[in-house]
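Progress report, Aim 2. The chain analyzed during this reporting quarter is listed below.
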Amino acid sequence: MAVRVVRFYRAETGQTQVAAFIQTPRLPGGTLTLRVSETGGEALWEQSWQRPADAPRGDMVDHLRFTVAPGSYAVEVAIRDSAGLLVGATSAPVSGYTANPGISDLLLAPLIRAVHPTDTMPRALEFRRGALLITAPGTVRIGVESPVLHYLLEAYTPFGGQGLLGALVRDAYGVLVREAPPAAVRVPAELGLLSGQLDLTGIVPGRYWLVTVLTIGERRMERQAGFEVAAAAPLP
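Predicted structure tokens for the chain:
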């Protein structure tokens, strides 16, 4: 089970938009419960649904999107088998922004693509943000056979302007293993969607951190997120 949370900011309302990517075993006939609550408080939202009895085995990804005010929250996940016994539970903390953060959390994905006129609905595992469709599993994993990692940030600057966006990869011990030199980017005023990709050819299987650095004028903003490199191509 895995829960990955990415936060975006909306200056016009001062609220935080949250995207949660929840990966759980299918468990034919089992029940999945999702709950969003204030820390130490009551649930803001809760829903349960049953998996079909003939559902194929394997992992399943659910996407949950919600908006919160400044404060501390949790996304809680529980799954029970067809007999009602608890199989597993996990949670992820969420903090609603108290002020404009400058940029959003870093969103990693094995694939980000532009919306095509034939895209009437997102494909399996896809999550839409603006004019982009993002493959968003609970755990970001790429294979050494197709070692391209995609990333996305939102920038929140009153006037926008020219900036520099760089990316680097560190291993689980903090050692630098790959670096992309800063590239010039145009950051739109108020809300800008910035995306890119990094070719990790030659990187060995393991756990890593992608760190992005966006510089606009004198302001330097850094975000990081974890991912895995698998020995073989990950299953969908």
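The chain has a mean pLDDT of 90. The longest strand covers residues 176-187. These observations will guide the mutagenesis work planned for the next reporting period.
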